[in-house]
Amino acid sequence: DAYICELSDEDKPNFVKQRMAVDSCPDGYGVITNDSVCETAAKFLGYKYDASKNGDSYSSNDAVCYISYLDWYYEKPKEWSIVQVNSNHWDDAAYICQKTGALVLSELPLTAQVQDRSTPADQSASQYVISVLYKKFCPLGYREITDIDVCESASNSLKIKYDSSKFGDDSSKYDPVCFATYINKYTNKPSEWSTGQVNSNHWGKDAFICELSNE
Description:
- This protein is mainly beta.
- It has helices at 35-45, 148-157; strands at residues 15-17, 29-31, 64-67, 83-86, 94-99, 128-130, 142-144, 161-162, 177-180, 195-199, 207-212.
- The protein contains two helices and eleven strands, in the order ββαβββββαββββ.
- The chain is globular.
């Protein structure tokens, strides 16, 4: 027999790379928006940092510290992967995260602070909403849908065609949830080709369909 052990909070590293295409940080870690801290994190992890890439290039996302162009299979940096603070992080990128409460000696003013766009203003009081494109989570106050009947009701409410034949668990990378396909990246709204379904094969042009949480 052998003990199964967990890493204590004291032994956790100050900085970690999140999994690819997950727009959040692991438990015990927070996002980095400060360019100086981002640079420190990049050096800590042995990644290349480029301050010239910092900015707010895609207004639908939050500007955070991340590493770009990861290998799709192994999720490891490639020779052209760059760490930066920007909002143009896509499915082949991963957040760089800082341990909660960790102190960094040098913290300069933020490169770009952007408002929380997790909850679209015109949907904030609705029973059902779609998440922001590229975000693998629901807006604050909403929760994911996994029930096919609820997904169908939500899709109908949002005027999205529901397709029960698409139900399944076709990707081992993600959990099956209710989502809409082919979301317009400029308006963050469904297109004429959008369908609602419960499956795990939700990719870059898809968005979660979420229901209001009673909690």
